[in-house]
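Hey everyone, long-time lurker, first post.

I ran two proteins through the pipeline my lab uses and got sequence/structure pairs for each. Pasting them in order. The first:
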Amino acid sequence: MLHQLHNDNAATGAQDDHDLANGTPTLLQAHAIESGHHTARALGLRAATRTDLDARAALRALLREPAAFEGYRQRVMPLHGGARRLPAALAAPSKYRRMLRIRLDMSAACAVRDREAPA
């Protein structure tokens, strides 16, 4: 999940859209579709993203809209809180547990950072 949160939010240009080009759904796409935020448009764009660079750009823009992204942010932060508490319940304090918490924090920060307009 950490990898997917980072991967969903790290792509900034058409050359970085491996998930879109491969037809792999992302957590951000799933949230936008499930939440009803332009569901039909998101599904139509998603179907075209494998071969159409303009569709990829349009879907990235749709997912960056504040209405779509704020709901995603509200769902990710509780997941982060639960994941952050888990290592403390499972392992004694150690440098590895500390590193895991740092990685969790970095992934959550990436997932909920303010969205920038597409390049």
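...and the second, right after it:
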Amino acid sequence: MKGYDMRLEKLTEHMSKFEMKPREPERITGVLAELEKTWRRYPDLRLGQLIMDIVPNECVRFNIEDDKMLDAIRAFGHKGSDEE
């Protein structure tokens, strides 16, 4: 647990140095709800496949902010809606 505490302390120090605000934990519920809705639309995909299909670019996928990921999940989930 000591290593985790040190990483958390360094992260907190880094965030205060650059005046970064902590992320809101409430965002998690919305992202996961949208991901679940989209995944249920494509149940044959494994989770990793779904995420890679939603954001194919590895670099973007790694660094994407949660609000942008939510937009990408929604866009992917609505693909083909006009055809149905």
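Reply from user beta_strand_b:
Welcome! Quick read of the second one: The CA atoms of residues 20 and 44 lie 39 Å apart. The first helix runs from residue 2 to 17.
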